[in-house]
Amino acid sequence: MSQDHLLRHLAPISDRGWALIDAEAAERIGVELGARRLVDFAGPHGWWHSATSLGSTEPAPAVPVDGITVLRRRVLPLVEVKADFALSRQQLQDYDRGAVATDLGNLDDAVASMARIENMAVFHGWAGAGLTGITEATVHPDVPRVEDFNDYPGRIADAVDLLRRAGVGGPYGLAVGPADYTAIVSAIDHGGLSVFRHVGEILEGPIVWTPGVHGGVVLSLRGGDFLFESGQDVSIGYDHHDAGQVHLYLEQSFSFRVATPEAAVVLARK
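The structure assignment produced for this chain is given below.
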């Protein structure tokens, strides 16, 4: 199905300009969407895809004919997310003339907002959208994350041990917010080794910079435990324009489910 609802053909932007905007958005958002590197991604199924099947049923509240049993399929509606931004028409026109410095700063802000809401929904949930996050669903006790990052490998080892004792195999990954990621990269453990390298060896998997995550989350990467379903993947649409600016937006639709609550452990500040 076409993406006509994005109305890109109505924007006063050349094909060359659209190619620049799309390329810059893809490069930026590919870095920021940390959750997608750690959970199962299905789709994109298209803008018209409205709900995720939960594979179960519930009794219908009322049946108008005697002797009939009616079950209703259970589904999880997808949530639509939109982030508005505006670009200078003069900047886009100058790019068409051959300018090499084009200010797309507002696009950066929209990308950051879009990534943050997705990462937060996956890891911390979004009650208003009916989404339960990994940190809400886990059945394991939190592992306390001490302020001394030199001791961080020991905390990761504790989290991995909890998962293994629950029968959850690896490899494992770690999602952390920007501040914790920087601290991990900068720290040296008590044995003189790089904390980043030591943690990676314990996990046998990646440490992922994930804006929107509070503390840290260790989770299995074996597959089948955390399910992200994309309707429309992140796309850019046109809203309107005036003499000075073109008003655009980033848009996507998705759902998220935790299939195995035992497959993640939270590292929380105490």
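Interim note for the steering committee: The two ends are 50 Å apart (CA to CA). Residues 105-124 form the longest helix (20 residues).
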